[in-house]
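Question thread 4412

I'm putting together a teaching handout and wanted feedback from people who do this every day. The idea is simple: show students a protein as raw sequence, then show them the structure tokens that encode its fold, then repeat with a second protein so they can compare. Below is the first pair exactly as I plan to print it.
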Amino acid sequence: MFNARTAPQTDLCPRNFLCRSSLFIHAGILSLLSFAVVSPAGRLRTQLGVSVGDGGHLALLHAMRRHANFAEWLPMTLIVIALLELNGVSKSAIHSLGAALVICRITRAIGLKADTVRSVGRGIGAGGTAIVTLVASVWAIVRYF
């Protein structure tokens, strides 16, 4: 458990002050969103009696892809944004990246439909997530040098 009194003092987090990350709100929203993304797959597994794989059910396959795509992109992007924040990038930039990521992940989850690959929401969500990840990653590399 974090203890502000025993935490090492840094410029970003003095010992007598509990650090408040700009990314907290976005990470919290995305964590709650993960329940909305995971729940349909679990519900369908129970209804269809499928414990592993998709059992040949297209609806379960799509629910699994929503969950997998969320899990594939979200952790690394949040980590890179958090590292940017720890290295002094402005709160407004962190909020912009975090808000864009939240919007893109919601749009992507809603846009992944069983009937078409070319859904507008899917494209905006996937492309937007890739752009946020790319911007944060390049920013982190540039910041290093």
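The second pair follows. I'd like the answer to focus on this one:
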Amino acid sequence: MEIRTAQTNDKISLDLFINKHIELMQTDSEESNKEAFEHVWYMRPVFFVSNLQTAIRFYVDKLGFIKKWHEADGKGTVCQVDRGGCEIILCQNTTRSSQSRVFLELSRDGVEQLLKEVTERSVPTKKSWWGYDVLQIEDPDGNELLVCLETYETGHEDSFTAKG
């Protein structure tokens, strides 16, 4: 498996990526913390949604994700959507009203592509602040995708708000 680094957009193997991050974190950590980096933790956020089919349409049709799996042969209340290594589990639960947030860091080209897509598909967005400038996208249930704009060139302020 290969991934692209956010800073340089270079392709590197997943093993090399993990090893470099472990090495950096170990040199910056105390001896007691080194043990914590011996194993990779694979995490996926779970977004609770009121209507799974509506959420799937939003992520697939509006944001370009693919549906990777859907329990009960597509009839269940849990599925996963993926795009470029970003994996989100969608879980229909009408009694849970809490929102979730995921933070995405893309290459400059990735941000430009996303801005083009959300504009073409009329996805509402807004420029926000979360430690630095981010593009905020909310799904129909208020779950947020925050896209880092730190590496994106200035002068594109008019691109940050798509009409919805």
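Top answer:
Good format. For the second protein you could add a caption like this: The two ends are 36 Å apart (CA to CA). The mean pLDDT is 82.
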